[in-house]
Amino acid sequence: MAISYRHQITFSAFLAQDILDQAHKLVRLAEQILWEEIYDGLRPYYSAVGRKALPIRLMVGLHLLKHMENMSDAQCADRIRSDFYWMYFCGVDVDSLEGKYSHLNSSSMTKFRNRIGDKGFAVIEKVIQNYLLKKKKIDPKVMATDSSCMEKNIEYPTDSGLLSKGRENLLKGMNSLKKMGVKVVSGVRSYTRKSKKILITMMKLGKDRFERIKRGTLELSRQAVHIVGKSKKMVKSAEKFLKTTVLDPVSRIAVQGTISYLKGQAKLLNQVIHQSRERFKGRHVPGKIYSLHEPQVTSIPKGKRSKPNEYGSKFNISIDKNGFIVNHESYSTNKHDSLLLDPAITNWEEKTGKCPSQINADRGYVQKTKSMSKRVKSIVRLCIPTKGKKKHPAHKERWFRRGQAMRAGIEAVIGHLKQDHRIDKSRYSGFRGDKINLSLGCLAWNLNKLARVAK
After folding, report:
1. Which of 113, 149, 166, 188 lies 20 to 30 Å (CA to CA) from residue 24?
2. Cβ burial, residue 198 (10 Å; 0-12/13-18/19+)
3. CA-CA distance, 153 to 47, in Å (whole number)?
4. What is the Cα–Cα distance from 89 to 451, expressed in whole angstroms?
């Protein structure tokens, strides 16, 4: 798809500008964001030929507003057609939204995210951070860092639910191959009614519930083994079908895609079968599967009474003393906080050009003296409380107490990111989607803060 250049403003948009309050935060932000630099940074993601794409400023603006206002894609596509401030921020007008950009909808935003990916949003973030550094809104001397979990938008994982869902996924794939003309494998049982009865029996309360769960899970695993075996035979039949049958390109790609889907789902279901059986033998299985459509999801123990474990990815953010988020990192595994400090310092130095002289963090970031990196050793003031009863040597000094007070403030930042900027759950696909969600949430926080402090 070809890149779309900025269009000339229409007469109706010119008149609408007189209605807008120039002190509104979106009007002020629209003038401060360096749209031309964002445009130049995202140019490589577009082709020189093809149908003209929706303008970069429009798509970037919609994503920023989405996370600033905590809205969905569909809500954003509707809101921009009725809000003049949104139109002004995104550089469009009523005539263009009713005319040449009338095809804008929620899928347009999904396609834009898939186009530029997490690296494209990193480009946008870099432009805005450079502006904050240039205007001296960010102070690179003092850094506060903390980690948290960003949950994935998945159901609560249970082995019985995953076994049932995996069996259904394989049956759907096999039915799709059947409709495409592939020879059906004989002796396939769907277990639709039987599995439903098992799940209902397992959910009922009672003294023998554990035994019912055990019997039901093992029975569902036997059903899953049967379907996995039949799916492998169906895949072989489909591969033979591709070699012996003349198909048009579209049909051939569809068959190949379904074969790949069946292979992937069968592999995941085999892992679920293994972990469900090992669980009742009292054996721990590392690298468990918690979701069939998001297999990268990991379990992160948080120690909360209401929610002992959270399922998603881990992230680490670092803020300056003014409260701006300077850098962030996403992790697909549950790394210990002590391993996150060195990457956080490295990213801070890359983005600000300076190594912080003071770092404020909680006890989780305590570094072992033997394994401490040179970068951590170079920090003048490491404001991290020691573990155990022995207190930090400087715990009574003013800089240490103020540093810990600043560190406590990052908890509020994380809370606002989750409550107001969609970091509570990642609704984008894959680990790349987690990084995009975190990047947009941090951008929304920084822009809202910039709108408040900008003169």
Report:
1. 113
2. buried
3. 33
4. 13
Which is it for strands 309-319 and 325-331: parallel, antiparallel or unpaired?
antiparallel
Phi, psi angles (nearest 5°) of residue 311: -115, 115
Half-sphere exposure of 409 (CA within 13 A, CB side): 17
pLDDT computed for residue 1 by the predictor: 62
3-state secondary structure 347-383: HHHHHHCCCCCEEECCHHHCCCCCCCCHHHHCCCEEE
Burial 30-44 (b: 16+ CB within 10 A, else e): beebebebbbebbee
- Say if CB 153 and CB 426 are below 8 A apart: yes
Give residue 450's pLDDT.
94
Whether 153 and 214 have beta carbons less than 8 Å apart is answered as: no
- Averages of pLDDT over runs of 10 residues in the chain (455 residues) are 56 60 90 94 90 93 96 96 92 89 94 95 96 93 94 92 96 95 92 94 88 94 96 95 93 95 96 94 91 93 84 95 95 92 93 93 86 84 89 89 92 95 94 96 96 78
CA dihedral 219, 220, 226, 232 (to 10 degrees): -150
Contacts (Cβ under 8 Å, ≥6 apart) of 321: 139, 141, 142, 144, 406
**From its phi and psi, is residue 206 left (phi > 0), alpha (psi between -120 and 50) or beta?**
left
Position 11 scores a pLDDT of: 43
- Give yes or no for a contact between 411 and 148, defined as CB atoms under 8 angstroms apart: no
Structure tokens at 232: 């492998």
Map tokens 């670092």 to a residue.
Answer: 318
Q: Which two tokens stand for residue 233?
A: 């035979």
Q: How far is CA 401 from CA 100, 383, 392, 424, in A?
A: 58, 9, 11, 30
Q: State residue 430 phi and psi, 5-degree precision.
A: 75, 175
Mapped onto helix, strand or coil, the DSSP state of residue 328 is strand
Residues 6+ apart with CB under 8 A from 190: 171
Burial bucket for residue 78 (CB in 10 Å: 0-12, 13-18, 19+): middle
- DSSP SS3 for 326: strand
Residue 290 and residue 298 in contact, taking contact as beta carbons nearer than 8 Å: yes
The pTM is what? 0.90
